[in-house]
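Quarterly update from the structural biology core.
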Amino acid sequence: MNNYQDQKIKAQELYYKINSVFSPALKQRVFFSADGFNHIIFQNSRSERDRSSQILRFSLIPLAVKLIMTSSTFQEYEEIFKEVTIKKYKRKIKEQKIVKYWGLIAIIDNRKIKVVIRKIGDNGALHFWSIIPAWITSKCRDAKFVMTMTGRPDED
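Predicted structure, tokenized:
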């Protein structure tokens, strides 16, 4: 096996062992589902991230867990009404739902990272969506929350 495959397998094993962690910032459990791991590999349903970007994100999974478990506030929040694929009566269908994103940003072990947590619909569970290395934040220092994210939370 090559280096990429080895790292992907190790990251996958670690990722699925996590299952869920409690987030003090959101006051509930955040689940580590297949959607989150697939988002580390793919930007969207049709395009795979660069291998170097994937490897970097694999290495940051433990820091993402640490950030979710220790952060007491979230820095970004966004709601989007969009079409999502859901399972309903054992079938996959597309429905319009409110999708909520929370961004947690911190320097953990000398690495600046942003973790995105997502929730689909009102009854959905919070789940890890993405980890973004060296994220650029706004310069507004007096606000506790920045109510809009910069970038594309669906793809970052």
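DSSP finds four helices and six strands in the chain.
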